[in-house]
From TrEMBL:
Molecular function via GO: DNA binding
Protein name: YbaB/EbfC DNA-binding family protein
Domain of life (superkingdom): Bacteria
Organism per entry: Actinoplanes missouriensis (strain ATCC 14538 / DSM 43046 / CBS 188.64 / JCM 3121 / NBRC 102363 / NCIMB 12654 / NRRL B-3342 / UNCC 431)
Length: 101
């Protein structure tokens, strides 16, 4: 094998290792990602994980006291949906910033 070919192969392998490392880092970032959203009045805060599963829900005491159950349920659902939408934006941001140069 010529020295030039060996050098070219080492260069290609080095670039492959960089890409592989970047993909591993991206997968770790997405796997541990959590995204939160808050209702417009701040009474409800929902956090979802990378799969869109609800992992935390915070309710301000006034929401439970002042709203009827239907309003509270609607605001919770809307806030969780907003957090899930934010999840896709966050994934897009991560992927964009992990692209190879």
């Amino acid at each position: 094998m010529t020295e030039t070919l060996r050098s070219d192969l080492e260069d290609v392998y080095g670039r492959y290792e960089e890409l592989r490392s970047g993909v591993d880092e991206l997968q770790r970032s997405i796997a541990t990602m959590q995204v939160s959203a808050e209702s417009p009045d701040g009474a409800v805060r929902a956090t979802v994980d990378a799969d869109g599963r609800l992992v935390d829900l915070m309710l301000h005491p006034t929401a439970c006291r002042d709203w009827d159950v239907n309003t509270l349920a609607r605001v919770i659902v809307e806030t969780v949906q907003s957090a899930s939408a934010g999840k896709y934006e966050q994934i897009e941001h991560l992927v964009t910033h992990h692209r190879p140069a």
